[in-house]
Amino acid sequence: MRERARRLVEELEQRILLLDGATGTALAGRGLTARDYGGPQLEGCHEVLVLYRPDVVVDLHRSYLAAGADLVETNTFGATPIVLGEYGLAERSEELNR
Predict the structure, then answer these.
(1) Considering only CA atoms, which of 18, 14, 19, 48 is closest in space to residue 32?
(2) What is the end-to-end Cα distance of the chain in Å, rounded?
(3) Is the pTM value of this prediction over 0.85?
(4) How far is the C-alpha of 37 from the C-alpha of 45, rounded, in Å?
(5) Rounded alpha-carbon distances, angstroms, from residue 3 to 13, 18, 36, 60, 97
(6) Is 1 a residue whose pLDDT tops 80?
């Protein structure tokens, strides 16, 4: 982790780095169905895509990198116990964030 942090600082000292775009918006525009999310009760919970459709998440990250992004974020914006609690997944917060 220290090596990555050091490299990030070095890059930031040299140039502006580009971060990917709106992950949730991009995932919502992919035409996913309830089945992609693991069922109707989880539909719209982008965080569970790492479990049920990791290929979609990887493809999105690759598309941002191909467009010139230097950094990509995860799709865990709402992977907090409070948000995941709305889907009955509060206890899986740590797992989804990993």
Answers:
(1) 48
(2) 15
(3) no
(4) 7
(5) 15, 20, 36, 26, 22
(6) no
